[in-house]
Amino acid sequence: MRTRLLGLIAAALLAASGAVVPLAQAVAHAAVPAIDGNTCVDGGGTVEYESTKGSWICVDGDYDGKPID
Predict the structure, then answer these.
(1) Coil vs helix vs strand at 33
(2) How confident is the model at residue 19 (pLDDT cuts 50, 70, 90)?
(3) Within a 13 Å sphere around the CA of 57, how many CA atoms are in the beta-carbon half?
(4) Are the beta carbons of 44 and 61 closer than 8 angstroms?
(5) How far apart are CA 2 and CA 9, in angstroms?
(6) 20-66 pLDDT per residue, tens
(7) Is 5 left (phi over 0), alpha (psi -120 to 50) or beta?
(8) Which of 32, 33, 42, 49 is the most buried (most CB within 10 A)?
(9) Are 45 and 68 in contact (CB under 8 A)?
(10) More confident residue, 48 or 8
(11) DSSP 1-27
């Protein structure tokens, strides 16, 4: 009986932590200030599409890795 209860508690904690991680990532991504394409190019970078995330980012230059607004 104790094994089942511990297993249930462990499963509930794992499920809860799995639901929190995407939310934390979304909040962290929203906290990063976005720049426009001209600012990226002026800083020596290029605007490129990141297909894994479905968004545009600045590659190289002063704003490397910053999302494009």
Answers:
(1) coil
(2) low
(3) 13
(4) yes
(5) 11
(6) 456 555 555 556 678 999 999 999 999 999 998 899 999 999 999 99
(7) alpha
(8) 42
(9) no
(10) 48
(11) -HHHHHHHHHHHHHHHHHHHHHHHHHH
Q: What is the rounded distance in angstroms from the CA atom of residue 45 to the CA atom of residue 66? A: 10
User: What SS3 state is found at 47?
Assistant: strand
How much is the pTM?
A: 0.51
Question: Which amino acid type is present at position 23?
Answer: L
Cβ-count burial 18-39 (b if 16+ within 10 Å, e if not): eeeeeeeeeeeeeeeebbeeeb
For the record, the structure tokens of 33 come out as 């200030």
- Rg, the chain, Cα only: 20
